[in-house]
Amino acid sequence: MNAGIKRTAGHTMRQGPDERQFRTIGLYIAPQFSMISLMCTIEPLRVANEILGKPLFKWELISKDVGRVQAVNGLDLMAHRAISDDDSFDAVAVCASYDLPNACDPRVLAWLRRMARRGVRTGAIDTGSYLLAKAGLLNGYRCTIHWQNLESFRAEFPEIQATSNLYEIDRNRFSCSGATAALDMMLHLIALEHGTDLTMQVSEQLIYARLRQEHNSQRSAVAHRLQINDAKLCVALSAMEQQIESPLIIADVARLAGVTVRQLERLFGENLGCSPARYYADLRLNRARTLLHQTSLPVIDVAAVCGFPSYAHFSRSYRRLFGHPPTAERRRGHLEGRA
């Protein structure tokens, strides 16, 4: 597509040479994909077609092989067809969720590379960014992924700029963190094609009053998640969440919160029923548990990125919290997966 000026309702947008129309979309549904993420991707397009009175947006469900694909909620969807060298789309997107090792089939990764080489806009929904990263399609691009997978993704792909944003659109790559974030991303893409007036009509039909921007955070604020009203305690908790690999000493946490160590201990005891040190350690151990399940990082490396320079200390702490050593957690994760 030649560079030029495209006028849309409410604003003028300059198109670059790598921006293609977003009309025909191939949605690859991986094994154990997220049903809510897929529906939040498709429904804005369906409603836009209904409002416009014509099938402007078209989509097809694609899988590795012809047949049914089971979502993580146990429901099956029949893919329209299997991946093919003859596929012709303006964009393709991978919708995934759990069972990422099985989703990363070499045939699928090769197909994604072929699509990208043809200039097809390539995207990811929920944990679909993992497949794009495995295919080498996110180097030099911003992307996002579901917050539960963000730390393990960053650990496995340190060269990729992965954010905690709701969605990311970076040139001919697009990604969202899943669930209703797919709705926000699709509404934004519709606006780029047809302006904000259509987007507002679609959101009204979907009873979606508050459109979120890409830079919005996936997770609620600490105060909302933990039902805590004390502002100083929330500052302390946020500081701990942001410093996992290089933990702060409790005196520094107290200083950031604007209280003494004794006052901080009282706040934790009254609101969370534990000391700041115990809460901080458990926070890091839970992060380690996620990495053991979601990545193939050596256990000693998991310990390091979660702020435990001594493996012996890490193993003892892990056993205290979970009742078994981290090596047993890794074996359990390989047997059971994330289901």
From TrEMBL:
The keyword Magnesium does not apply. Gene3D superfamilies: 3.40.50.880, Homeodomain-like (1.10.10.60). InterPro entries: Class_I_gatase-like (IPR029062), DJ-1/PfpI (IPR002818), Homeodomain-like_sf (IPR009057), HTH_AraC (IPR018060), HTH_AraC-typ_CS (IPR018062), INH-QAR (IPR052158). CDD domains: GATase1_AraC_ArgR_like. SUPFAM superfamilies: Class I glutamine amidotransferase-like, Homeodomain-like. GO terms for molecular function: DNA-binding transcription factor activity; sequence-specific DNA binding. Keywords: DNA-binding, Transcription, Transcription regulation. Pfam families: DJ-1_PfpI, HTH_18. The keyword Protein transport does not apply. This is Transcriptional regulator GlxA family with amidase domain. Residues 234-332 form the HTH araC/xylS-type domain. It comes from Phyllobacterium trifolii.
